[in-house]
Amino acid sequence: MRRRDALRSMGALFAAAGLSKVGAVELRSVPHETALSKEMLPSPVMSGGQGNVFKGQARATLTAVFDRLIPHDELGASASEAGCVDFLDAQMNGPYGESKDLYLDRPLRADESELMGLTISLRTRRDYMLAGLEFLDSHARKQHSRAFAELAGEQMDTILVAMEEGHLDWEGAGSGSRLFEFLLMSVREGYFADPLYGGNRNMVGWKLVGFPGARYDYRQYIDRRGQNLGLEPISLIPVN
Fold first, then answer.
1. Which of 123, 202, 207, 208 has its CA 20 to 30 A from that of 167?
2. Using one digit for the tens of pLDDT, what is the confidence trace for 144-188?
3. Could you tell me if 208 and 77 are in contact, meaning their C-beta atoms sit under 8 angstroms apart?
């Protein structure tokens, strides 16, 4: 798997053709009345994750998967170098990982899930991810007598491709491809999210596609479509 394939669809959303450079003057202050108090400032996710949901072998497996999907190469940092593992760890430690937005109780009638055409899972995303990583590691040990993170790159790719193509289901038809899609979605989110959330460390993802970040005001650039403004990306992380 190549980084270009993994990032292609996301990069297309951000990239713009560079026609000419201009000496843009940046706005470096905001109206005083719109300033946040210190109590309202967000706390960035630090290196190592927020809640350490992924520990030991689970973290090693996740790191190996992410670095196969977005490897270190001539285009830039790998997924783990960019903090994608820390990003997902923090996500899984909060309401998203606890699936607070989903209905996790059993249907009132046994046949309701079939009538609605839904697959109802009683697990949180956190438990789903941990179970999926455990399956990956277990499968690698059965096939190669080694943990997934200890396999050669080509062996990892063979397992991941089998999952992507639906040949490696672990809890019912289509479960393998759904797990692969979730992992791919998560690593993309981590690579392009604001560094506040733990990923996109040093804004490597934004620099890769030329995204200028969370800027207060774009009015001075509104008539410069298609031009390379040479702007350094800005994060939501508070600056003292």
1. 123
2. 999 999 999 999 999 999 999 999 988 888 889 999 999 999 999
3. no
- The token pair at 169 is 């289901």
- What is the residue range of 180's domain? 3-9+43-221
Task: State how far the Cα of 24 lies from the Cα of 30, in Å rounded to an integer.
Answer: 17
Whether 233 is covered by a domain: the verdict is no
Measure the CA–CA gap between 197 and 116, rounded to whole angstroms.
35
DSSP lists the bridge partners of residue 21 as 228
Query: What letter represents residue 176's amino acid?
Result: G
Model-level pTM?
A: 0.77
Total number of domains constituting the chain: 1
Q: Could you tell me if residue 82 is inside a domain?
A: yes
DSSP letters, 91-155, are HHTSTTTTTTTS--SPPSSTTHHHHHT-----S-HHHHHHHHHHHHHHHHHHHHSS-GGGS-HHH
Q: What b/e string do you get for 4-33 counting C-beta neighbours within 10 Å, with b at 16 or more?
A: eebbeebbeeeeeeeeeeeeeeeeeeeeee
Query: Is there a domain that residue 102 lies in?
Result: yes
Q: Has residue 114 been placed in a domain?
A: yes
